[in-house]
Amino acid sequence: MSKRDKHHIENDPSYKGLAVNEGIEQPPSVNDQSVKRFLKKRKKLLSPEEYVAGILDGNITILSQAVTLVESAKPKHQKIAQEIIMQCLPHAGKSFRLGITGVPGAGKSTFIEAMGKHITTNGGKLAVLAIDPSSERSKGSILGDKTRMEELSGDANAYIRPSPSAGSLGGVARKTRETIILCEAAGFDTIFIETVGVGQSETAVHSMVDFFLLLQLAGAGDELQGIKRGIMEMADAITINKADGSNIQKANLAKAQYENALHLFPAAESGWAPKVVKCSSLYKEGISEIWDMVKEYHEFTSNNGYFEHRRRQQAKYWMYESINDQLKSSFYENEEIKSILEASENKVLTDQLSSFAAAKELLDIYFKKNA
Prior knowledge:
This protein is α/β, with parallel strands linked by helices and about 375 residues long. It contains 15 helices and 7 strands. Strands 3-2-4-1-5-6-7 form a 7-stranded parallel β-sheet, with helices on both faces. Helix 10 (about 225-235) links the parallel strand 5 (about 210-215) and strand 6 (about 235-240). Helix 3 crosses helix 4 (about 75-90). It is extended and about 100 Å long. Residues about 135-145 and about 220-225 have low confidence and may be disordered.
């Protein structure tokens, strides 16, 4: 017979005919064993040597974890990431890097999937680094490229890594170049870098790729001419996508117009004459011809020495970019600067101090402290 629960008022002798038995002990709302198992399963940081061994072995899970460390802003993660990169450097540099940009709606994801399948079907290994737009308000991103490239996502010889741009200039992820090194060390012989669209990001992407492809649409109109010129000057080829169905005539006209426009530009340093080609990513038409053109460019620039020259120039450029990044990071992480930054900001907002004077004051304090 169950024991009576002394804590219930109904068991008081004054309540005749009422009795409440002591209930069974209720299980906790969270299963302790499950929590322990979950905590054990949580990814623990490996040593740099373990990450490097996994990357060189082509382990995609470890590669993804290493890329996450590269993208992390935590100093602890950054330290490990830099050690991984240093150990991977001797195994990098053997891929062909191709940048792909174009106006929103030009069909970049469909094009990348069609071209990617062509590469992997012919024995290549492809890594796609897709720079995904981040919200300026929430800093969140869509990261939808894996959804859009459904066929390529399931390909064992392809690796798709969407990275949020995190508000950086023009939507270029700050760590993309370091991610390229890791992907090359993992055995990927072709790297695609897709940008969010036509804008300032193209300059940064151009400085880390061997071939720069501009994807265009037929009949896009002249409203984009203001931003086309600078991008077109950087392009090694222009591809008019969606050249199918009723759009073929427009695509032919656009091809002729772009070819005429390219003649007005100064000759490229590489000696390569940029070409205009058409394709239909949806129907896989013209894809193999575009890839043949890319290989022709690779051979041409390798023979005249421009390929290696460009790689060296890019390495120098990114050295200076890294210096700028680290100086900026060091400034904002400085404890004294953190303590007075808000006060300086308020002085600027209340017109007690000009923006330039406030910046000079803060920099003087920073450099004196670090002298």
